[in-house]
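Running log. JK asked me to keep both predictions on one page so they can be read side by side. First protein, sequence followed by its tokens:
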Amino acid sequence: MASVNPALAQLLDDPTRDWSTFPTREPPFDQAVGLPAVISISSLEWPTKLETPHRFDHWLAAATNILRAYHLDHLIDINIPRPRRADPYALHWLQSSIQVQSWLSSMMTPHMYRQIEKRGHRIALADEFIFEAKATFMRRNTTETFRFQMNDGYFNPIEHTIALRLEFNRHWINGVEISPSMAFLSVLRGLEGALAPHVEAALARIGWDGQTVTTIERFNQYCDFIIQELRHQVVASNGVL
């Protein structure tokens, strides 16, 4: 009688072993999985075209919700792998992605489309089109949207700093190409005249060289410091946070 491998015998005899906890291999998932057999772009309704960068977040959320209802939302997610060229459903995926990209580009004004196009990168497929749109408009939003809101009185300096800090962190998590240095300079530009003269000197003492923010952690540290200083200024002026 053949002897049983000792390691195998130990596994078979272990009463605490729960076989259901062993990792199982999930089926491969890519952008082609779950696509409808026929895509009718004309049936996708859209309330209004994108006309300004300040509305891009709302536009993208609406587009994602509409595409999700038709099981097409994974076509715009660049983090989901594309099918391989040799896969039997690759051609259907390619045609579907091109159709969705065409629909998305038709749902913005020609001027907005040209802003994406002039970056010079590939935008023929849906995922790369949305990636480039994010890099174009979310980058601009971080430097323009909050300045616009500050000028119109929507944000006070503390709210501006908190909002821009949160916005940059959200874009960073989503992989949008915004440097911590550029984001922090945007914070400072939006606060022109609001900071007491000693604040920038105090920032220098904690590492700010006037130009470079090397990490997102450092960006958050500087923003927290500014928020604290702004609150101190408010307290000093009227005793109210």
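And the second, directly underneath as requested:
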Amino acid sequence: MAARARLLLRQFRNMGWKYFVPWVLLFGLIPLLTWRYIQSSGLTPDVYDYMRPGVYNDFERYIPMALVWYLVLLFYEFVDNPACELLYAYDGVKKTRLIDLLAVHLHIVLMAALLLFGYQFILPGLWQEFGRLCIILLVYSCTMYGLMYLAKSTLFAAMAVVIYHLLGAFMWSDGALFDLFSEMRIDGTQPLPTNYTPFLLWAAILLGLGVFLNRRYVK
């Protein structure tokens, strides 16, 4: 386990400047957009109510993209590299990359928690958004994992998730078929299990598929 942790740290270090792109996105672009909401509101007494929907949407739009970015960077050598079989033969045992997937997932969850903690001081109640974000990130992590090993390509998996994300987060209206984001609105009309059961089931299936294919992976 210690050796695996050191390998993960080395993989993150090897990302170089690319590692900091999600940090700029989350802690640079999102606050900048928030400041624009404040300016466009005219600093009226209800400024916080005015900017809240925009902030929610920005969290849902940009934080999942950071997850996709890290997954591509971390898994590329294990999926797309023609000699990747050698990496799986470490210690003579075929290993899944679930630890790597979990590490990236938790890394983004912690980044999101840090961002929401800062926003909590100006927009109380934002922690309800954290639960929705965790569901989006879980679905995307499992989907990426399954599709990467099914298509034998990190870029194919990333493009599939990004296309869905762009449609769901930027284009589809509430109620669109298979729109994960249509369930994210703060209306309180449906309980969590009813809303998200299909998506969580999809995530479980893709995760199981990823584990199955990962154990037998040959490029």
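Observation for JK regarding the second prediction: Residues 183-194 have pLDDT under 50 and may be disordered.
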